[in-house]
Amino acid sequence: MRGKDKARSSPMVPDTVAAEIARHDWDGVECGCRRSAGHLVDTLWDAAEGHPAAFHALEGHAFQSGVLRPPAPAVCGVLMAVWSAGPPRLATREALLWTLVSLLGSEDDGSSYEAGLYGQCAAFVRAGLPLLRRERAASPGSATAAYVDGIVGLLGPAA
Hints:
two-stranded antiparallel sheet
């Protein structure tokens, strides 16, 4: 077991993704499960290493019953960092895109966070739209293309 004072690293996780995970105050955010979101760090590392189940494990934490939870924007930032580092292998890619659709398909929690949880999530995803669209164009008719179409549709006409 890793001690709290020792940073996690993996040869499978690009430095940009590790930096995105590290830049957030996970312990200072209440998770959808009502604990500190600090326990999501290991899940996000697992996702960044390419484990599809880790993306699905974010349900109940970053989003729950169709409602965004406070860790959602930071989770979106990490997911988009993973995507920006290079589209992952197919199973991981589809799990990542499923998670983005789930996040963008959820409602704000009604809190007064800066741009709202949804607005913050949407901003991270909009910043990565060119990369998402490029992958969609490379694989028309695929599940990836369908997920990207869903993401664009959820972001609205300005996307």
